[in-house]
């Protein structure tokens, strides 16, 4: 039974409650009845008598006391729902439904009534309505801990009904989409599939959520296609040369750095611990806008390719360009980049099997020599589940949709934030 909020207890009620808690049920019952006669407008003793009758298995008496309580407090949804549950136990579905509808008229977000209503509709054979009522009730409840103990078995049943309904609905929608996929190709409807997954609750919406600078009005896409950036063809054409320069510096073992060594204010011990788990290192050409001259000199072809790329320029922040090494078993955990004003580009150089990257709800595998372009302000992660090294050449470019004035303004804004308080400004990339 649910406990309505009826205000503070008076002394006789407190005494009756003490008797009930002590197991002296008959004495408590007698005192509650005495109080109900003395205070006919007080709903508390009436509700207590109804709950006692339920505990004693006397549903007829419980109904009587619940009706008396509802006469006194007709707009208390918990009373209406509890009386409805008694009708439901006796298979009086229409009466239960009327009471539950009354409860939801009073308090539309009262989730016990929605869950009970789903059960009634299911018993009446109205399966779709039942699934929707169950879904609304479970959503309104939120955490399973909020569901009263006596309702948890029903709530678990409700979850199963909702899950099966969503599976049926998804299969139906997919069957309707199959003709379109045959005509246009499956890849052309990838965003429709994601939208359906979000609508069905299988996928989460993955919005842009940069750590630092959010630019309003930007396109929100996970991956971009290579054909949208014609200048990438020249970068890809130099894949073999770039790979050879990487292998040379790898053999010499010079210029490599722990990628997380400057990450988010971590101490040295924390950084080493995190790095041992991530197994991610880098050979930088640019970092935080600073050009690494010695590294560039060791890899002149790669450095010359970077000169032809429209890299963003943000003082103290961009550009960034490096060879990225992910060791066997490495997993870069889900995270967000600093801004939605740039795109990150991967040129895969060495890619064993069982490697991949997820951005939002989309997952792709690297293909050597073919650039992968994505918005890293959307949650993303990467992994190397092979027993070999994975290497990609990472650089960045401005996100589409920015004017020249805005690009200059971003640099000025971020620079000013850093100048004002380089250590503490929360709006700067941390």
What key attributes describe this structure?
430 residues, alpha+beta, Serine Threonine Protein Phosphatase 5, Tetratricopeptide repeat, Jelly Rolls, 16 helices, disordered C terminus
What do you see in this structure?
This protein is an alpha+beta fold. The chain folds into 2 domains: 11-163, Serine Threonine Protein Phosphatase 5, Tetratricopeptide repeat, CATH 1.25.40.10; 223-420, B-lactam Antibiotic, Isopenicillin N Synthase, Chain (Jelly Rolls), CATH 2.60.120. The chain is 50% helix and 14% strand. The protein has 16 helices and 12 strands. It has helices spanning 11-21, 25-38, 43-55, 59-72, 77-89, 93-106, 111-123, 127-141, 152-184, 190-200, 232-237, 239-252, 268-278, 293-298, 300-307, 404-420, and strands at 223-224, 256-258, 280-287, 290-291, 321-326, 331-335, 342-350, 355-359, 362-364, 372-374, 380-384, 390-398. Strands 1, 2, 3, 4, 5, 7, 10 and 12 form an 8-stranded antiparallel β-sheet that branches. A hairpin with a 2-residue loop joins strand 8 (355-359) and strand 9 (362-364). The chain starts with 10 loop residues before the first helix and ends in a 10-residue tail after the last helix. The model is unreliable at 5-9, 261-278 and 425-430 (pLDDT under 50).
